[in-house]
């Protein structure tokens, strides 16, 4: 009964998000698209952090590489082939993940974090210090990809609402894919690696192969998010691969709660909305120019007060109530004894 109720509430929520553009302005519809793209980006990292126990500080490299790929290979005179561009972006992203992951996964802990950061910075400087991607100025995507068969357009994401629904569909499919993956034997192996990798090796599992596969899958999902980001704004620059971008998406996973898939989505929603709030001149006036200060303080407060993330808040409240009930019971027992 409880699962049925949850499923019903989920369907209602998805339906409300799907029709949101009809009841709001273009600005808030665009903001919702941005949140969904970052939620997909955060979901890809959640597979590593929450699913496998691999904390990466270079995940933005996959996001940026896919965004640059679709922008560079789209012709200036018309829309490119949707599936060709998406497949190409994913192949390049996964290939980069396979090479860098094979090296990075030979390290652990803080060393893995630093190696992933180093590889991401390498990709960043390739586009930042060369003319491959327009240098620091970045490059523009003038036409969104579309799927055509002759004169028949199967998918044209140039339409704002079609693109909105397409992004929502990508987010839901990615979440469903990861949910099924983590409930599979492969997902169970990843959980075992996160809990105790040495014991998994002793049980005969090739932990390196599992971790590398998860790393490549996470890169592919980040590539889908990068593809959508480029299609949304029509502009990419090297900052998409900067370490700040990797740190931001890592914060989304931690704040939302790395133990559950929904945590990545909730973290993306909360952090993006907080940024919009503190940047609002209608609320904070001229102080909005200094939005980084309250934004940082809010993140510190949330992380400090919610050690298990936002998804862990209900359990945290239940634990507090249980402790209070135990204290009251103990106090009552002492009073009756005296």
From TrEMBL:
PANTHER family: ABC TRANSPORTER ATP-BINDING PROTEIN (PTHR30482:SF17), HIGH-AFFINITY BRANCHED-CHAIN AMINO ACID TRANSPORT SYSTEM PERMEASE (PTHR30482). The chain crosses the membrane at residues 6-25, 37-70, 82-103, 110-127, 161-181, 202-229, 249-274, 295-313. This is Branched-chain amino acid ABC transporter permease. It is found in: Cell membrane. InterPro entries: ABC_transp_permease, LivM-like. Keywords: Cell membrane, Membrane, Transmembrane, Transmembrane helix. It is a multi-pass membrane protein. It holds the Pfam family BPD_transp_2.
């Amino acid at each position: 009964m409880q699962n049925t109720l949850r499923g019903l509430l989920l369907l209602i929520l998805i339906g409300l998000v799907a029709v949101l553009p009809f009841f709001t302005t273009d600005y808030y519809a665009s903001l919702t698209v941005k949140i969904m793209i970052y939620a997909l980006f955060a979901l890809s990292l959640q597979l590593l952090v929450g699913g496998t126990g691999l904390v990466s500080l270079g995940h933005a490299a996959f996001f940026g590489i896919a965004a640059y790929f679709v922008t560079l290979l789209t012709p200036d005179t018309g829309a490119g082939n949707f599936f060709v561009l998406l497949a190409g972006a994913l192949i390049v992203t996964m290939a980069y993940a396979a090479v860098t992951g094979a090296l990075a996964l030979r390290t652990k802990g803080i060393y893995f974090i630093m190696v992933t950061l180093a590889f991401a910075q390498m990709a960043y400087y390739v586009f930042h210090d060369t003319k491959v991607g327009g240098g620091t100025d970045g490059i523009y995507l003038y036409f969104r990809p579309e799927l055509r068969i002759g004169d028949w357009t199967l998918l044209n994401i140039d339409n704002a609402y079609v693109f909105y629904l397409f992004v929502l569909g990508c987010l839901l499919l990615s979440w469903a894919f990861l949910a099924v993956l983590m409930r599979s034997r492969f997902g169970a192996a990843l959980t075992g690696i996160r809990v105790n990798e040495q014991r998994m090796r002793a049980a005969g599992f090739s932990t390196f192969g599992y971790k590398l596969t998860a790393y490549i899958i996470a890169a592919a999902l980040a590539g889908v998010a990068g593809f959508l980001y480029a299609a949304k704004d029509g502009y990419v620059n090297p900052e998409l691969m900067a370490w700040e971008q990797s740190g931001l998406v890592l914060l989304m996973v931690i704040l939302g709660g790395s133990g559950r898939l929904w945590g990545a989505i909730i973290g993306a929603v909360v952090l993006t909305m907080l940024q919009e709030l503190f940047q609002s001149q209608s609320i904070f006036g001229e102080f909005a120019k200094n939005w980084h200060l309250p934004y940082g303080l809010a993140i510190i407060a949330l992380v400090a007060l919610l050690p298990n993330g936002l998804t862990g808040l209900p359990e945290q409240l239940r634990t507090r109530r249980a402790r209070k009930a135990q204290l009251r019971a103990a106090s009552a027992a002492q009073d009756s004894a005296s």
